Amino acid sequence: MQDIGFDIISDLNLSSNDSFNWKNKATSLYCIVAGNVSADLNTVLQVLAHLTTLYQGVFYVPGVLEYQTGENIITRNEEIMAICTRIPKVVLLHQQVITVDGIAIVGVNGWSDAGGVDSVDEMVRTAARYEDQRYLRSTIEKLQRHLDVKKVIVVSSAVPKEDLYFGEEPVIVYDQIPLCNVLAADTEHKIKHWVFGTYDKLVDTEINGIQYLNNPPSRKSPYWAKRLTVSI
What we know:
Elements lengths: L2 E7 L20 E5 L6 H12 L4 E5 L11 H14 L3 E3 L4 E4 L2 E6 L13 H23 L6 E6 L34 E6 L7 E4 L2 E4 L12 E6 L1
Parallel strand pairs: 1-2, 2-3, 3-4, 6-7, 7-8, 8-10
Antiparallel strand pairs: 1-11, 5-6, 9-10
Helix pairs in contact: 1-2
């Protein structure tokens, strides 16, 4: 049995004038970025490029924040893909799965309205949310049949279930189909960890055998990586 470590970063919410320095903060070989880096794509580029100087692999899911300044979802997807292909060691978890030593990492934005992106039409956001759920369920179903995949980490910018707001969920999320419904496809129980963003309070809890965790910055204390250790 071996342990594989992943550092978790979420919800940096940087402006174009903010600086970001992660030097001497890495605790693992790999990093998972669960969305909401910045609405400014040049800042996203700088953050991801900086992280690749510290990690062997950076696995990134865009959050709703990244779409605030986009012309539309499709165009912004293309722009984000172009950024990620420019940076070696960055994997954009959009319609793509990465496998590390028997651990599959699958990610989606999730498009929670709790993220508050007024620049994207509500009907378009809803369609994108359903598409992410369809993709996530389909991918989880396929991973059940992969003998080389022993465990699966799900990454979403959206909060996967209402329980994780601990009674503070925004009213706007009530009518949304929870992302966690896709767990019905995990027939072999390979999903043991779900990394998410959007919620601004630190969460690390286990529900029905799955560890749910995020790592938003706090204004009250220095920001450090949160390490997820997966045993294979």
